[in-house]
Amino acid sequence: MSRLSPQVRALYHREMTAATAAASIEQRWRHLERAHIISPPDPLLHKMNHVAMLKLALREHDRREALGQLVRIVVAAPGSLTGRYPQGNTGRVDAGLMTPMTVPADLAEQFSA
């Protein structure tokens, strides 16, 4: 069950598309992180975001990030279903599993619209 409005869902898809089209690895990660901030209320989108992060980590031969994403893939959907996820978390291994973070202003505006 998704708790995302159609507008926020569209924003998620724009960020995921931008990640695919990004010219640099840093830009891809940035868009995936932004998509992650949006995704937790929807179990499927949340899990798919972590799958995309895992693929990028594997492509970059980043074992630490890949292992962290495997763990997150397992806990993403249950966390979404129970509402146990940290607000604003970017979904990366350096962010910590349950560390709340500041939501970028432009995304926060979309959440409240």
UniProtKB/TrEMBL annotation:
Superkingdom of this protein's organism: Bacteria
Pfam families listed in its UniProt record: DUF3703 (PF12487)
Descriptive protein name: DUF3703 domain-containing protein
